[in-house]
Write a structure and sequence with these properties.
Blueprint (H helix, E strand, L loop, with lengths): L7 H4 E3 L4 H11 L5 H21 L3 E7 L5 E7 L3 E7 L6 H7 L4 E9 L6 E7 L8 E5 L2 E2 L3 H12 L7 E5 L1 E2 L1 H10 L4 E4 L5 E2 L5 E2 L5 H6 L6
Parallel strand pairs: 1-11, 4-5, 4-7, 7-9, 8-10, 9-11
Antiparallel strand pairs: 2-3, 5-6, 12-13
Length: about 220
């Protein structure tokens, strides 16, 4: 491995497990939560995750003049960043990214698991033409087995994005998925609001949240 390989502590960034964060998780994990409540409170969690992800990106000095005529020696996020949403569930995270970085470019990757082979298959990718020069926030709310994550990272690497320029952001992460990403791509950094107990025999996270995309977009109910 190169000297850019990060330690587990540097690679996996778990949000501080505050009482407020636990209260948000209590709402979104509730199987009886109304969709409006799920979307609102999931968005609050995602906002915290995006902020933590931005903290890992390059900053550059930027001076401003205050209203009293003094110079404040500040910082701003470097211009060469973008988001990449793993469709469909990852699209739920785009609004919070745009709210924090209105000018950010956002690409899309669609990966689905083959029903026969159970292997992830790339169906679609549309990325910024200059993505190889950018730091990437890879957006997918769920990291379970890691199969989709590994396939998405492979797409980014194939476009010339350095491994250490990828920050993978999840709402929930299973230990098995974290281990899979760490084993193959140790320089990819991850941000999550919860590391779950484990996966069950059907690869669902425990205690879990259900199908995030279905619950967020309202495709889990019959009207």
């Amino acid at each position: 491995m190169t000297d850019t390989t990060t330690s587990v502590e540097d690679a996996v960034h778990l949000l501080p497990q505050t009482r407020y964060l636990r209260a948000l998780h209590t709402i979104v994990r509730d199987r009886h939560a109304k969709r409006d409540d799920f979307v609102l409170n999931a968005g609050r969690i995602i906002r915290k995750l995006i902020e933590a992800g931005l903290e890992l990106l390059p900053f550059e000095p930027y001076d401003v003049q205050t209203p009293v005529g003094r110079t404040y020696h500040g910082l701003r996020v470097g211009p060469q960043i973008c988001g990449v949403a793993v469709a469909r569930a990852g699209e739920s995270m785009e609004a919070e990214l745009r709210a924090l970085a209105p000018d950010v470019r956002i690409g899309k990757i669609l990966i689905q698991r083959d029903t026969v082979t159970k292997l992830p298959h790339l169906y679609y990718a549309k990325l910024p033409l200059d993505i190889a020069r950018r730091h990437v926030l890879l957006l997918d709310p769920m990291l379970a087995t890691g199969g989709t994550a590994l396939a998405a990272i492979e797409v980014l690497l194939g476009e010339g994005v350095p491994e250490e320029h990828i920050v993978f952001i999840n709402v929930l992460s299973a230990p098995e998925g974290i281990a899979a990403v760490r084993e193959r791509y140790p320089s990819v950094r991850m941000v999550t609001s919860s590391i779950e107990e484990r996966l069950n025999e059907n690869a669902y996270m425990l205690p879990g949240i259900g199908d995030f995309g279905d619950r967020f977009f309202g495709t889990d109910v019959v009207s």
